[in-house]
Write a structure and sequence with these properties.
Elements lengths: L1 H129 L2 H10 L4 H116 L21 E3 L2 E4 L6 E4 L2 E3 L13 E3 L4 E7 L8 E6 L4 E11 L6 E2 L4 E5 L10 E7 L2 E3 L8
Antiparallel strand pairs: 1-4, 2-3, 4-11, 5-10, 6-7, 6-9, 7-8, 8-10, 8-11, 11-12
The structure holds zinc ion.
Protein backbone atom coordinates (compact mmCIF):
# COMPACT_ATOMS: atom_id res chain seq x y z
CA UNK A 1 0.00 0.00 0.00
CA UNK A 2 2.62 2.45 1.15
CA UNK A 3 5.00 1.38 -1.62
CA UNK A 4 2.13 1.87 -4.11
CA UNK A 5 1.62 5.44 -2.95
CA UNK A 6 5.29 6.22 -3.15
CA UNK A 7 5.74 4.70 -6.54
CA UNK A 8 2.70 6.70 -7.81
CA UNK A 9 4.22 9.87 -6.41
CA UNK A 10 7.54 8.97 -7.96
CA UNK A 11 5.91 8.43 -11.33
CA UNK A 12 4.15 11.79 -10.97
CA UNK A 13 7.40 13.51 -9.95
CA UNK A 14 9.27 11.94 -12.84
CA UNK A 15 6.53 12.92 -15.28
CA UNK A 16 6.66 16.49 -13.96
CA UNK A 17 10.44 16.60 -14.24
CA UNK A 18 10.17 15.22 -17.75
CA UNK A 19 7.42 17.64 -18.81
CA UNK A 20 9.01 20.70 -17.26
CA UNK A 21 12.43 19.66 -18.49
CA UNK A 22 11.05 19.28 -21.98
CA UNK A 23 9.30 22.64 -21.78
CA UNK A 24 12.35 24.45 -20.50
CA UNK A 25 14.85 22.69 -22.76
CA UNK A 26 12.49 23.26 -25.71
CA UNK A 27 12.49 26.90 -24.68
CA UNK A 28 16.26 26.94 -24.45
CA UNK A 29 16.54 25.03 -27.70
CA UNK A 30 14.38 27.46 -29.61
CA UNK A 31 16.32 30.41 -28.18
CA UNK A 32 19.58 28.73 -29.16
CA UNK A 33 18.11 28.01 -32.59
CA UNK A 34 17.14 31.65 -32.94
CA UNK A 35 20.62 32.78 -31.95
CA UNK A 36 22.09 30.30 -34.46
CA UNK A 37 19.71 31.64 -37.13
CA UNK A 38 20.70 35.17 -36.25
CA UNK A 39 24.39 34.32 -36.56
CA UNK A 40 23.80 32.65 -39.93
CA UNK A 41 21.83 35.68 -41.14
CA UNK A 42 24.59 38.04 -39.95
CA UNK A 43 27.13 36.01 -41.87
CA UNK A 44 25.03 35.97 -45.03
CA UNK A 45 24.36 39.69 -44.67
CA UNK A 46 28.08 40.38 -44.35
CA UNK A 47 28.83 38.35 -47.48
CA UNK A 48 25.99 39.97 -49.43
CA UNK A 49 27.04 43.44 -48.37
CA UNK A 50 30.64 42.75 -49.43
CA UNK A 51 29.32 41.44 -52.74
CA UNK A 52 27.14 44.53 -53.10
CA UNK A 53 30.13 46.80 -52.46
CA UNK A 54 32.08 44.91 -55.12
CA UNK A 55 29.20 45.31 -57.57
CA UNK A 56 28.88 48.99 -56.77
CA UNK A 57 32.53 49.71 -57.51
CA UNK A 58 32.25 47.58 -60.65
CA UNK A 59 29.23 49.65 -61.69
CA UNK A 60 31.15 52.90 -61.03
CA UNK A 61 34.00 51.63 -63.19
CA UNK A 62 31.64 50.62 -66.00
CA UNK A 63 29.88 53.97 -65.86
CA UNK A 64 33.22 55.80 -66.09
CA UNK A 65 34.13 53.62 -69.06
CA UNK A 66 30.81 54.34 -70.71
CA UNK A 67 31.27 58.06 -70.17
CA UNK A 68 34.73 57.89 -71.79
CA UNK A 69 33.37 55.85 -74.68
CA UNK A 70 30.49 58.23 -75.25
CA UNK A 71 32.95 61.12 -75.35
CA UNK A 72 35.07 59.20 -77.87
CA UNK A 73 32.00 58.42 -79.97
CA UNK A 74 31.06 62.09 -79.91
CA UNK A 75 34.57 63.03 -81.08
CA UNK A 76 34.51 60.34 -83.78
CA UNK A 77 31.19 61.66 -85.02
CA UNK A 78 32.47 65.20 -85.10
CA UNK A 79 35.55 64.00 -87.00
CA UNK A 80 33.28 62.20 -89.47
CA UNK A 81 31.09 65.24 -89.94
CA UNK A 82 34.21 67.30 -90.70
CA UNK A 83 35.32 64.71 -93.26
CA UNK A 84 31.88 64.66 -94.85
CA UNK A 85 32.01 68.43 -95.17
CA UNK A 86 35.48 68.28 -96.72
CA UNK A 87 34.32 65.60 -99.15
CA UNK A 88 31.26 67.63 -100.12
CA UNK A 89 33.50 70.67 -100.72
CA UNK A 90 35.91 68.60 -102.77
CA UNK A 91 33.08 67.13 -104.81
CA UNK A 92 31.88 70.66 -105.58
CA UNK A 93 35.42 71.55 -106.66
CA UNK A 94 35.59 68.43 -108.84
CA UNK A 95 32.25 69.25 -110.47
CA UNK A 96 33.50 72.79 -111.13
CA UNK A 97 36.74 71.45 -112.57
CA UNK A 98 34.84 69.02 -114.77
CA UNK A 99 32.67 71.89 -116.01
CA UNK A 100 35.79 73.90 -116.84
CA UNK A 101 37.21 70.92 -118.72
CA UNK A 102 33.93 70.39 -120.57
CA UNK A 103 33.92 74.08 -121.50
CA UNK A 104 37.51 73.95 -122.73
CA UNK A 105 36.76 70.78 -124.65
CA UNK A 106 33.87 72.55 -126.33
CA UNK A 107 36.19 75.45 -127.20
CA UNK A 108 38.75 73.01 -128.60
CA UNK A 109 36.05 71.29 -130.69
CA UNK A 110 34.90 74.67 -131.94
CA UNK A 111 38.47 75.67 -132.77
CA UNK A 112 38.98 72.38 -134.56
CA UNK A 113 35.85 73.03 -136.57
CA UNK A 114 37.10 76.49 -137.50
CA UNK A 115 40.51 75.05 -138.35
CA UNK A 116 38.91 72.44 -140.57
CA UNK A 117 36.90 75.04 -142.44
CA UNK A 118 39.82 77.40 -142.75
CA UNK A 119 42.16 74.59 -143.87
CA UNK A 120 39.61 73.59 -146.44
CA UNK A 121 39.49 77.15 -147.81
CA UNK A 122 43.25 77.25 -148.03
CA UNK A 123 43.43 73.87 -149.68
CA UNK A 124 40.75 74.88 -152.15
CA UNK A 125 42.58 78.02 -153.03
CA UNK A 126 45.94 76.25 -153.33
CA UNK A 127 44.42 73.51 -155.43
CA UNK A 128 42.76 76.09 -157.57
CA UNK A 129 46.02 77.84 -157.99
CA UNK A 130 48.43 74.99 -158.54
CA UNK A 131 46.47 71.97 -159.72
CA UNK A 132 43.20 71.41 -161.47
CA UNK A 133 42.48 75.04 -160.95
CA UNK A 134 45.40 76.05 -163.22
CA UNK A 135 43.17 76.43 -166.22
CA UNK A 136 40.57 78.37 -164.48
CA UNK A 137 43.14 80.49 -162.67
CA UNK A 138 44.95 81.01 -165.93
CA UNK A 139 41.60 81.81 -167.34
CA UNK A 140 41.09 84.35 -164.65
CA UNK A 141 44.53 85.73 -165.29
CA UNK A 142 44.29 85.63 -169.08
CA UNK A 143 40.92 87.04 -169.06
CA UNK A 144 42.51 90.15 -167.63
CA UNK A 145 41.72 93.07 -169.71
CA UNK A 146 45.21 94.50 -169.43
CA UNK A 147 48.60 93.65 -168.02
CA UNK A 148 48.00 95.79 -165.00
CA UNK A 149 44.67 94.09 -164.51
CA UNK A 150 46.55 90.77 -164.78
CA UNK A 151 49.04 91.88 -162.14
CA UNK A 152 46.38 93.05 -159.74
CA UNK A 153 44.43 89.85 -160.18
CA UNK A 154 47.59 87.79 -159.53
CA UNK A 155 48.59 89.70 -156.40
CA UNK A 156 45.04 89.53 -155.12
CA UNK A 157 45.16 85.73 -155.33
CA UNK A 158 48.51 85.62 -153.57
CA UNK A 159 47.19 87.87 -150.86
CA UNK A 160 44.21 85.63 -150.33
CA UNK A 161 46.44 82.56 -149.92
CA UNK A 162 48.80 84.35 -147.57
CA UNK A 163 45.94 85.51 -145.39
CA UNK A 164 44.40 82.03 -145.37
CA UNK A 165 47.72 80.51 -144.30
CA UNK A 166 48.08 83.06 -141.52
CA UNK A 167 44.58 82.42 -140.29
CA UNK A 168 45.18 78.65 -140.17
CA UNK A 169 48.39 79.18 -138.23
CA UNK A 170 46.59 81.47 -135.82
CA UNK A 171 43.82 78.96 -135.22
CA UNK A 172 46.36 76.20 -134.69
CA UNK A 173 48.08 78.36 -132.12
CA UNK A 174 44.79 79.00 -130.33
CA UNK A 175 44.08 75.27 -130.37
CA UNK A 176 47.51 74.46 -128.94
CA UNK A 177 46.90 77.06 -126.21
CA UNK A 178 43.54 75.55 -125.35
CA UNK A 179 45.00 72.05 -125.26
CA UNK A 180 47.77 73.19 -122.95
CA UNK A 181 45.13 74.75 -120.68
CA UNK A 182 43.14 71.53 -120.78
CA UNK A 183 46.22 69.52 -119.83
CA UNK A 184 46.67 71.76 -116.80
CA UNK A 185 43.02 71.36 -115.86
CA UNK A 186 43.27 67.58 -116.31
CA UNK A 187 46.32 67.43 -114.06
CA UNK A 188 44.48 69.52 -111.47
CA UNK A 189 41.44 67.21 -111.71
CA UNK A 190 43.69 64.16 -111.23
CA UNK A 191 45.02 65.76 -108.05
CA UNK A 192 41.48 66.46 -106.84
CA UNK A 193 40.46 62.87 -107.59
CA UNK A 194 43.43 61.57 -105.65
CA UNK A 195 42.52 63.79 -102.71
CA UNK A 196 38.95 62.48 -102.97
CA UNK A 197 40.20 58.92 -102.76
CA UNK A 198 42.29 59.77 -99.71
CA UNK A 199 39.33 61.41 -98.00
CA UNK A 200 37.12 58.42 -98.83
CA UNK A 201 39.68 56.16 -97.21
CA UNK A 202 39.82 58.44 -94.14
CA UNK A 203 36.06 58.42 -93.92
CA UNK A 204 35.92 54.62 -94.14
CA UNK A 205 38.53 54.41 -91.36
CA UNK A 206 36.62 56.92 -89.21
CA UNK A 207 33.38 54.99 -89.76
CA UNK A 208 35.11 51.79 -88.71
CA UNK A 209 36.46 53.51 -85.58
CA UNK A 210 33.02 54.76 -84.71
CA UNK A 211 31.45 51.33 -85.28
CA UNK A 212 34.10 49.74 -83.05
CA UNK A 213 33.47 52.33 -80.32
CA UNK A 214 29.73 51.83 -80.53
CA UNK A 215 30.13 48.09 -80.28
CA UNK A 216 32.33 48.53 -77.23
CA UNK A 217 29.83 50.92 -75.64
CA UNK A 218 27.00 48.44 -76.28
CA UNK A 219 29.03 45.71 -74.57
CA UNK A 220 29.76 47.96 -71.57
CA UNK A 221 26.05 48.83 -71.39
CA UNK A 222 25.19 45.14 -71.35
CA UNK A 223 27.66 44.60 -68.49
CA UNK A 224 26.20 47.61 -66.69
CA UNK A 225 22.68 46.18 -67.00
CA UNK A 226 23.88 42.79 -65.73
CA UNK A 227 25.59 44.38 -62.71
CA UNK A 228 22.53 46.53 -62.03
CA UNK A 229 20.35 43.41 -62.10
CA UNK A 230 22.76 41.67 -59.74
CA UNK A 231 22.72 44.69 -57.41
CA UNK A 232 18.94 44.73 -57.44
CA UNK A 233 18.89 41.05 -56.54
CA UNK A 234 21.41 41.63 -53.74
CA UNK A 235 19.43 44.59 -52.38
CA UNK A 236 16.28 42.52 -52.32
CA UNK A 237 18.14 39.64 -50.67
CA UNK A 238 19.63 41.96 -48.07
CA UNK A 239 16.22 43.51 -47.36
CA UNK A 240 14.70 40.05 -46.93
CA UNK A 241 17.50 38.91 -44.60
CA UNK A 242 17.20 42.11 -42.59
CA UNK A 243 13.44 41.61 -42.26
CA UNK A 244 14.10 38.03 -41.06
CA UNK A 245 16.71 39.32 -38.67
CA UNK A 246 14.30 41.88 -37.24
CA UNK A 247 11.58 39.24 -36.82
CA UNK A 248 13.97 36.83 -35.09
CA UNK A 249 15.31 39.56 -32.81
CA UNK A 250 11.74 40.42 -31.86
CA UNK A 251 11.03 36.75 -31.20
CA UNK A 252 14.17 36.47 -29.06
CA UNK A 253 13.10 39.52 -27.08
CA UNK A 254 9.69 37.97 -26.55
CA UNK A 255 11.17 34.67 -25.39
CA UNK A 256 13.65 36.38 -23.06
CA UNK A 257 10.81 38.47 -21.70
CA UNK A 258 8.72 35.34 -21.17
CA UNK A 259 11.63 33.79 -19.29
CA UNK A 260 11.83 36.89 -17.11
CA UNK A 261 8.10 36.62 -16.42
CA UNK A 262 8.45 32.93 -15.60
CA UNK A 263 11.26 33.83 -13.24
CA UNK A 264 8.90 36.36 -11.60
CA UNK A 265 10.68 39.45 -12.84
CA UNK A 266 8.81 42.57 -13.95
CA UNK A 267 8.51 43.28 -17.68
CA UNK A 268 11.35 45.52 -18.86
CA UNK A 269 9.26 47.04 -21.66
CA UNK A 270 5.82 46.85 -23.29
CA UNK A 271 4.47 46.56 -26.77
CA UNK A 272 1.67 48.97 -27.79
CA UNK A 273 -1.65 47.19 -27.04
CA UNK A 274 -3.44 48.26 -30.30
CA UNK A 275 -0.90 47.85 -33.12
CA UNK A 276 -0.97 50.77 -35.57
CA UNK A 277 -2.83 53.10 -33.21
CA UNK A 278 0.34 54.27 -31.52
CA UNK A 279 0.55 57.94 -32.43
CA UNK A 280 0.98 59.77 -29.14
CA UNK A 281 -0.80 61.99 -28.34
CA UNK A 282 -3.01 61.65 -31.48
CA UNK A 283 -4.45 58.25 -30.49
CA UNK A 284 -4.77 59.13 -26.81
CA UNK A 285 -8.24 60.63 -26.42
CA UNK A 286 -7.97 60.71 -22.65
CA UNK A 287 -4.74 60.58 -20.61
CA UNK A 288 -4.06 59.13 -17.16
CA UNK A 289 -4.99 61.35 -14.22
CA UNK A 290 -7.70 63.72 -13.02
CA UNK A 291 -10.38 64.71 -15.51
CA UNK A 292 -14.09 65.43 -15.97
CA UNK A 293 -15.80 62.13 -16.73
CA UNK A 294 -17.17 62.15 -20.31
CA UNK A 295 -20.46 60.52 -19.25
CA UNK A 296 -21.17 61.56 -15.66
CA UNK A 297 -19.55 64.98 -16.01
CA UNK A 298 -17.99 64.50 -12.55
CA UNK A 299 -14.42 65.30 -11.61
CA UNK A 300 -12.69 61.92 -11.20
CA UNK A 301 -9.40 60.12 -11.54
CA UNK A 302 -8.81 58.35 -14.92
CA UNK A 303 -7.03 55.11 -14.05
CA UNK A 304 -5.55 54.46 -17.50
CA UNK A 305 -5.27 55.85 -21.00
CA UNK A 306 -7.94 55.73 -23.73
CA UNK A 307 -6.62 54.67 -27.14
CA UNK A 308 -8.96 55.52 -30.03
CA UNK A 309 -9.46 57.18 -33.46
CA UNK A 310 -7.70 56.02 -36.64
CA UNK A 311 -4.46 54.40 -37.68
CA UNK A 312 -2.18 55.75 -40.42
CA UNK A 313 -4.22 53.93 -43.08
CA UNK A 314 -7.29 55.83 -41.93
CA UNK A 315 -8.95 52.73 -40.47
CA UNK A 316 -11.15 53.18 -37.44
CA UNK A 317 -10.10 51.40 -34.24
CA UNK A 318 -13.41 49.49 -33.76
CA UNK A 319 -12.89 45.72 -34.22
CA UNK A 320 -9.08 46.03 -34.40
CA UNK A 321 -7.01 43.43 -32.46
CA UNK A 322 -5.80 44.12 -28.94
CA UNK A 323 -2.51 42.44 -27.97
CA UNK A 324 -0.86 41.60 -24.65
CA UNK A 325 1.45 44.52 -23.81
CA UNK A 326 3.83 42.06 -22.11
CA UNK A 327 4.07 38.32 -21.56
CA UNK A 328 2.18 36.89 -18.65
CA UNK A 329 -0.76 34.86 -17.40
CA UNK A 330 -4.40 35.82 -17.97
CA UNK A 331 -5.85 36.45 -14.49
CA UNK A 332 -9.30 37.83 -15.20
CA UNK A 333 -11.59 37.55 -18.20
CA UNK A 334 -14.98 39.19 -18.05
CA UNK A 335 -16.97 38.05 -21.03
CA UNK A 336 -20.27 39.87 -20.53
CA UNK A 337 -21.13 43.54 -20.86
CA UNK A 338 -21.88 45.58 -17.79
CA UNK A 339 -20.09 47.68 -15.22
CA UNK A 340 -17.58 50.40 -16.02
CA UNK A 341 -15.02 48.23 -17.84
CA UNK A 342 -17.53 46.20 -19.88
CA UNK A 343 -15.81 43.19 -21.41
CA UNK A 344 -12.23 43.21 -20.19
CA UNK A 345 -9.06 41.17 -19.58
CA UNK A 346 -6.48 41.45 -16.78
CA UNK A 347 -3.06 39.96 -17.28
CA UNK A 348 -0.48 39.39 -14.54
CA UNK A 349 3.14 39.77 -15.45
CA UNK A 350 6.10 39.19 -13.13
CA UNK A 351 7.14 41.40 -10.25
CA UNK A 352 3.62 42.49 -9.26
CA UNK A 353 2.87 44.06 -12.66
CA UNK A 354 -0.57 43.80 -14.22
CA UNK A 355 -2.18 45.24 -17.35
CA UNK A 356 -5.90 45.70 -17.96
CA UNK A 357 -7.76 46.03 -21.27
CA UNK A 358 -11.33 47.34 -21.09
CA UNK A 359 -14.44 48.05 -23.25
CA UNK A 360 -13.56 45.11 -25.57
CA UNK A 361 -16.04 43.89 -28.21
CA UNK A 362 -15.00 40.36 -27.26
CA UNK A 363 -12.00 38.49 -25.83
CA UNK A 364 -10.04 35.58 -27.32
CA UNK A 365 -8.29 34.26 -24.17
CA UNK A 366 -9.15 32.25 -21.11
CA UNK A 367 -8.22 32.57 -17.46
CA UNK A 368 -4.92 30.84 -16.71
CA UNK A 369 -3.72 31.07 -20.29
CA UNK A 370 -0.07 32.02 -20.70
CA UNK A 371 0.27 34.76 -23.30
CA UNK A 372 3.33 36.18 -24.92
CA UNK A 373 3.92 39.84 -25.62
CA UNK A 374 2.07 40.69 -28.86
CA UNK A 375 -0.43 37.80 -28.67
CA UNK A 376 -3.97 38.81 -29.59
CA UNK A 377 -6.26 38.77 -26.53
CA UNK A 378 -9.42 40.40 -27.96
CA UNK A 379 -10.74 43.19 -30.19
CA UNK A 380 -11.59 46.87 -29.61
CA UNK A 381 -15.22 47.63 -28.77
CA UNK A 382 -17.32 50.06 -26.76
CA UNK A 383 -18.80 47.90 -23.98
CA UNK A 384 -19.31 49.14 -20.45
CA UNK A 385 -19.15 52.84 -19.60
CA UNK A 386 -18.01 54.06 -23.01
CA UNK A 387 -19.07 56.62 -25.60
CA UNK A 388 -17.39 54.97 -28.59
CA UNK A 389 -14.90 52.38 -29.78
CA UNK A 390 -11.69 52.68 -27.73
CA UNK A 391 -9.37 50.69 -25.53
CA UNK A 392 -9.00 51.71 -21.91
CA UNK A 393 -5.53 50.48 -21.01
CA UNK A 394 -4.26 50.28 -17.45
CA UNK A 395 -0.93 49.40 -15.90
CA UNK A 396 -0.87 48.37 -12.25
CA UNK A 397 2.14 47.75 -10.04
CA UNK A 398 1.42 46.00 -6.73
CA UNK A 399 -2.25 46.95 -7.25
CA UNK A 400 -1.53 50.66 -7.78
CA UNK A 401 -2.46 52.20 -11.16
CA UNK A 402 0.42 53.88 -12.96
CA UNK A 403 0.57 56.19 -15.99
CA UNK A 404 0.93 53.71 -18.90
CA UNK A 405 2.78 56.40 -20.90
CA UNK A 406 5.61 56.39 -18.37
CA UNK A 407 6.74 53.00 -19.71
CA UNK A 408 8.80 52.16 -22.75
CA UNK A 409 7.06 50.61 -25.76
CA UNK A 410 9.04 48.61 -28.30
ZN1 LIG B 1 -10.55 55.08 -19.90
Amino acid sequence: MRGGKWSRFLVFALVMVFVLGTVFSAQADSLDDYFDDLEAIEKRLEEMKAERQKNKSELDKLRDQLEDLNREIYNAERELAKLEEKIAQLEAEIANQEQLIADIEASIAETEERLKIQTEYLEQRLCAMYKNGTVSYLEVLFSASSFSDFLSRFSFLRMLIESDTELVAEIEETKAGLEADKALLDAELDKLMLRHEELDASRAAAEEDRAALKKKAARVKELEAAVEKELDKLNKGIAAEEADKKAIEKEIKRLLELERVRAGEPPSFFTWPVPGFDRVPYNITSPFGWRTHPITGKWHFHSGIDIARYNREGQSIGGKPIVAAASGTVDVVRNYDGGGYGIYVLISHGGGYQTLYAHMRYTTVQVGQVVQMGDVIGVVGTTGSSTGNHLHFEVRVMGEVQDPLSYEYK
